[in-house]
TrEMBL record:
Naturally occurring in which organism (per UniProt): Smallanthus sonchifolius
Native organism taxonomy: Eukaryota, Viridiplantae, Streptophyta, Embryophyta, Tracheophyta
Superkingdom classification of source: Eukaryota
Protein name: Uncharacterized protein
């Protein structure tokens, strides 16, 4: 009995029937939890029958409640995770029975736990606010562990950042390989120059996979240099080469056209807003801008961080199935394996990177409170921004407080879905503007060095 986390007396008529047909009276019914490093087992409907000599486990119920399965061998058994197929527990066979020992250790502190099992709302934020249909598909397909069963999400950030339109792709004609056709679009100028001096971004969409690459640009004319880098990167990363690029850019990109033809890429020019392919890039583009707005609304980061929000949006959309029914993300089509969803954290939240590689002096603090501003695609790490020093760290080992948003100093606005949403951007010259955005905290103000202090005589 003392092993139960909770129990109540049982007054029903059922008894527990054992092998020889005898019914043993049930006195209590209860539940308990057993903590492994990466998994919690729950036992529900435990029947307390004092006359029974051994505790028996209902294998079917245990499998059902814990998403696991058993493998019985002649002299041992193992319990495996239904999603990962990792072995969670093993036990011997004794006499004619298999004997299972469930850990009874104290639960691991909740904070460590939150990394493996987060709420549906946290997953919704980590994944970049996917449409609920896509979200459900992802939870199911990737077996994302959520701590609550209710998926009833009311997300203010989604209401602020997105129009009500569903961003699903209709079936268009199919290209057969990645890089067969790259669709390009330029966004900007941004209403605010970014933290590191960017005013535009170039969005490249692969027609086959719908995978996107986003490149921040300082000037529109930088597109030439960026595209050269893009072509080189593709050649290094993939066995195939870009065959065709479609843009709706006019004369100012004429030298880009020459560059394309010099390396054997066909450059197709299209009239804006007419062709089917333009429809794809416009929808993807809008999805990036709106998801970026949503991430900014979620975290209330200052406007001059818009490019971090856009890059993170692109990173996350690449990992979302682009159609509700196919459930395959662009990332999987391009890289042939599942994205690492357990790497994802909530954009704009508080984080504490382990800074030992940066600190030359042993006495320095090993961590400092930072703000999580997305993923480093080149290092597979997290971008952590220190608002005091205005320094960006790329760190792989980071602790997160996913419900704390340091830039969020005011309570969330509560928009009413029935009123036309004034915050929604207009494509394509939309501004990443969040009305009512709170000014950045004073810590940033004091570290900007552009102000001269005038002392009165
Ligand atoms: Zn949302």
């Amino acid at each position: 009995m003392s092993r139960f986390d909770s129990a109540e007396p049982y007054y029903g008529d059922d008894s527990l029937h054992v092998g020889n047909g005898t019914g043993l009276p049930i006195l209590h019914i209860g539940s308990s939890h057993h903590y492994l490093p990466n998994k919690t087992f729950s036992l529900t409907n435990i029947l307390h029958a004092p006359q029974i000599k051994r505790n028996l486990l209902f294998v079917q119920r245990f499998c059902h409640d814990n998403n696991v399965y058993f493998e019985f061998h002649s002299n041992f058994f193992s319990v495996k995770d239904e999603c990962t197929h990792n072995t969670l527990l093993t036990g011997p066979s004794e006499d004619v029975l298999y004997s299972i020992t469930l850990p009874t250790a104290l639960p691991v502190p909740k904070v460590a736990f939150s990394t493996s099992r987060a709420s549906a709302a946290t997953w919704h934020q980590r994944l970049g606010h996917p449409h609920h249909q896509i979200f459900n598909t992802m939870l199911f397909k990737y077996c994302l562990p959520i701590s609550n069963k209710t998926l009833d999400l009311h997300c203010n950030s989604c209401l602020i950042g997105k129009s009500s339109k569903l961003h699903l792709l209709s079936s268009e004609y199919k290209s057969s390989h990645i890089l067969d056709l790259i669709l390009c679009d330029i966004w900007g100028p941004a209403p605010v120059t970014s933290f590191d001096g960017h005013n535009y971004f170039l969005l490249c969409v692969d027609h086959f996979s719908k995978f996107m690459w986003l490149f921040p640009l300082k000037r529109k004319s930088a597109v030439f240099e960026v595209f050269k880098r893009f072509v080189t990167m593709d050649e290094r990363q993939f066995t195939t080469q870009i065959k065709c690029v479609q843009t709706d850019w006019g004369g100012e990109f004429r030298n880009l056209s020459q560059f394309f033809s010099s390396i054997g890429i066909i450059h197709r020019l299209s009239c804006p807003h007419t062709s089917e392919q333009n429809g794809i890039v416009e929808r993807r583009h809008r999805h990036v801008v709106e998801t970026g707005l949503t991430l900014m609304a979620q975290s209330n980061i200052p406007q001059h961080f818009w490019h971090f929000a856009s890059e993170t949006a692109t990173y996350l959309i690449n990992r979302m199935p682009s159609r509700a029914n196919s459930a395959i993300s662009p990332f999987e089509l391009v890289f042939k394996h599942k994205p690492d969803f357990f790497f994802l954290r909530v954009f704009g939240c508080q984080c504490y990177p382990h800074l030992w590689p940066y600190n030359p002096h042993k006495m320095d603090f090993r961590s400092t409170p930072c703000i999580f501003l997305g993923y480093s695609t080149s290092h597979h790490g997290y971008r952590c921004f220190d608002p005091i020093t205005e320094r960006m760290y790329i760190a792989r080992h980071v602790r997160f407080s996913e419900t704390i948003f340091p830039f969020k100093t005011t309570p969330e606005p509560i928009p009413s879905p029935s009123i036309p949403n004034p915050y929604v951007s207009t494509y394509p010259t939309s501004a990443l503007i969040i009305p009512n955005a709170a000014p950045p905290p004073a810590t940033i103000e004091t570290t900007t060095h552009h102000h001269h202090h005038h002392l009165s005589p």
